[in-house]
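Standup notes, protein team

Yesterday: finished cleaning the Sphingomonas longa set.
Today: Acyltransferase family protein structure.
Blockers: none.

Input for Acyltransferase family protein:
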Amino acid sequence: MTETPAIRRHYEPTAIRRHYGMDWLRIGAFAILILYHIGMVFVPWNFHAKSHHVERWATVPMLAVNAWRLTLLFVVSGYASRALLARSHGLGRFVRDRSWRLLVPLAFGVAVVVPPQAWVELVLRYGYPAGYLHFWTHDYFTFRQLGQVTVPTWNHLWFVGYLWFYTALLAIGVAAVRIRRAQHGFDWLFGTALGGVGVIVVPLAWSTAIHARWFPMVGETHALVGDWIAHLSYFPAFLFGFALARSPATMHAIGRWWPVGAVLAIAGYAYIVGIERGWIGPWGPALFARYGIAHAAQQWGAIVALIGIAERWFNRDAPIRATLTEAVFPFYLVHQTIIVVVAYVLWNSALTAGQEFAVLVAATVAGCTAFYYGGRAVPWLRPLIGLRRTS
């Protein structure tokens, strides 16, 4: 991206003070995501590998985070992007750094990290006869469909691709707004609209329109092109986080209104569980709309509540924070492959559901830790797992 002196001078005037609460929230969000993907082995929802101990009741704890876990990741990613932009020496440098930190691990992940997931799914579901090495060297890079699995694939790494795409759109917008006064005006407008109860009402109305009117009961494809329900949810969440980093008024409003968000989240979750467990019904268009409203209430209410809690009680540093903040991305890159492969190894085991779950948690934590520390120690591996290059 070509920069004029005006862009270099005005795109982001001052640095942003680190918000430790948002760091802890990011760490917690990724930890929940990893546990959620372990849970996917045991619930009757589509996943790459399933346990013999699939239980319908296990959806109840999964539904507690299902509505907001990914939206929260985009909010905290947008917040971090504003801080990174403020520290960068020019918009072009910001774009280059973010592209390097996102696209290189994405390419490495698609080529090396994700393929075992596709192989396990093909073996378990479609009786794929060949071993993994043959699959990776002969079939994975053929750009076709095997069974119902399209190869190559990015699977859970869709989040990285979407994050880069939103970052690119953000950079285009920042380049278009070259005058500092205009950027201050944007921050003022954001703080005015969302500086009071609007921080609850406005995003909740948008989310309700998505889930109850425009796309009731529509799933995300994670294919980037045509995935409108995802883009209409996640890109505004990303922009919200970006704007929040320079809006004390909105952060103050979140600190005031987060208990209301918590009540909305709990009420939405209770209604969704009632529908999923068959206590409310029957299914039909009217119920779809009410489900969408409950989903929106749980989604945005939980995000406001969690940010408010992070602002009030967790905006403080600790010795382990820096390491965990650096480790979450490498953990994210590799965690699902570990889960799927271990679930495959345990496929014919005599373990109980509890024992299988415990093994999956322990193996995932151990494998992710080894991946992070091993990659961090080797300079040429660092960019591949999303870490900064050493000088």
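Follow-up from PR in the comments: The CA atoms of residues 258 and 305 lie 4 Å apart.
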